[in-house]
């Protein structure tokens, strides 16, 4: 399946040009739906922008980046009368500008796609084609963003980044909960159909592994982010989230819950527990220095373990939202608003979509009778994903705090999102029992 999806994306990439060689490449690829291939193409664009942003953080590029316009023309002052030192902050400021242009592109696409109901809409060509022009537009936007004087740009854009990052964390929570439910449902179904002990052992081993990782994370959080005297807020965050995941795990195996969701259980709870502990870790990494043993060893414009794990989760979430179709559990997890529906509509006889005017493109239009996903909401999600990765790459830094990772606002945003995660998961468990007359299938 992954190879086919990769070839679908390759087909659309090849169709960015108009040569005979490109046409031959397109015709050699297997057919796939335009709802899938288009989402993958935007995902590739977003991932490429992330890679470019990562490159700007490479230590070897600092001297060259100091020559960029926003450093030479900058007033150098942000709130708090802190002078922006391009020798230290140029990588972070470059990431801000790359993500600023990318975010604006997705916001523009979201506005253009408002009200689209099917691929028969004239705007479908803009959504599903013109990839070369889109890439040029993003590249031009990035170049233009580098001419924005610093002034208060970083501190202002950081506020947008924190807000957007918070909303993407919520979306990421929904996707992870959907993944947990889908994973458990598939393995439980395999076990019920085959009665094989292998599936039962795999379920048990996966659950125990996830809970062990979560418990290990809790111990490490107490070691690195608390002290025997003081750090009461950090202790509260860790202890409270531990209590929450224990309560959520207990709810998942209640008889009243099992009656309506016989396949819910501790596997989903273990996956959610790991993510909650990650969010707790991420929040505490922005806590004050006196309770944060990692700040003193932190190097500016560099990745730490928390950022790397955050990027991995982000990439997996973006890819999952692009290739995953809504399942029976999606209505409960609310991911049906994010994932594409498994469309069967052939549109105009199942003809190939001609996004770039190439008649040989073997991308089947499955949205002729109705879109498989909200095109506008898809671009909004990717705009929020851009803001989230911007904050992750820059360690959620505060421009007015000497580039320190200490950022109380970011800490509260992440810890609040961890509580929302548990709340959303518990809702997916109790909703069918609370509203027995509502169809969640």
TrEMBL record:
Residues 1-16 form the signal peptide. It is a multi-pass membrane protein. InterPro entries: TDE1/TMS. Keywords: Membrane, Signal, Transmembrane, Transmembrane helix. One of its GO terms (cellular component) is membrane. The chain crosses the membrane at residues 40-61, 94-116, 128-148, 154-177, 198-224, 236-254, 266-285, 305-323, 372-391, 411-435. It is found in: Membrane. Belongs to the TDE1 family. This is Probable serine incorporator isoform X9. It comes from Papilio xuthus. The lineage of its organism: Eukaryota, Metazoa, Ecdysozoa, Arthropoda, Hexapoda.
């Amino acid at each position: 399946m992954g190879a086919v999806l990769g070839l679908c994306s390759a087909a659309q990439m090849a169709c960015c040009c108009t040569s005979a060689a490109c046409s031959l490449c397109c015709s050699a690829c297997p057919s796939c739906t335009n709802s899938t291939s288009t989402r993958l193409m935007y995902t590739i664009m977003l991932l490429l922008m992330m890679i470019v942003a990562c490159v700007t953080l490479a230590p070897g590029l600092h001297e060259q980046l100091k020559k960029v316009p926003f450093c030479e023309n900058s007033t150098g002052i942000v709130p708090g009368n802190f002078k922006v030192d391009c020798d230290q902050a140029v990588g972070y400021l470059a990431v801000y500008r790359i993500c600023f242009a990318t975010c604006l592109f997705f916001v523009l696409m979201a506005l253009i796609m408002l009200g689209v109901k099917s691929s028969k809409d004239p705007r479908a060509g803009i959504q599903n084609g013109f990839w070369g022009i889109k890439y040029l537009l993003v590249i031009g936007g990035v170049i233009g963003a580098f001419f924005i004087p610093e002034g208060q740009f970083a501190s202002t854009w950081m506020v947008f980044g924190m807000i957007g990052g918070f909303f993407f964390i919520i979306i990421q929570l929904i996707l992870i909960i959907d993944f947990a439910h889908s994973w458990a449902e598939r393995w439980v179904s395999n076990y019920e159909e085959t009665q094989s002990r292998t599936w039962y052992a795999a379920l048990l081993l996966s659950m125990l592994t996830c809970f062990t990782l979560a418990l290990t994370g809790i111990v490490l959080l107490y070691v690195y982010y608390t002290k025997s005297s003081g750090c009461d807020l950090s202790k509260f965050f860790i202890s409270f989230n531990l209590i929450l995941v224990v309560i959520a795990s207990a709810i998942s195996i209640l008889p009243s819950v099992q009656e309506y969701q016989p396949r819910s259980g501790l596997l989903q709870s273990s996956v959610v527990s790991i993510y909650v502990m990650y969010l707790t870790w991420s929040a505490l990494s922005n806590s004050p220095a006196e309770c944060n043993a990692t700040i003193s060893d932190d190097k500016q414009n560099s990745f730490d373990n928390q950022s790397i794990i955050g990027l991995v989760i982000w990439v997996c979430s973006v890819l999952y939202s692009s290739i995953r179709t809504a399942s029976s559990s999606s209505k409960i997890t609310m991911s049906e608003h994010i994932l594409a529906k498994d469309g069967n509509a052939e549109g105009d006889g199942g003809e190939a979509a001609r996004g770039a005017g190439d008649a040989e493109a073997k991308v089947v239009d499955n949205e002729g009778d109705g879109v498989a996903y909200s095109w506008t909401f898809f671009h909004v999600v990717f705009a929020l994903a851009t803001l989230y990765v911007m904050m992750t790459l820059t360690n959620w830094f505060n421009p007015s705090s000497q580039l320190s990772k200490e950022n109380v606002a970011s800490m509260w945003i992440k810890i609040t999102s961890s509580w929302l995660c548990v709340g959303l998961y518990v809702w997916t468990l109790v909703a069918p029992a609370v509203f027995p007359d509502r169809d969640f299938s």
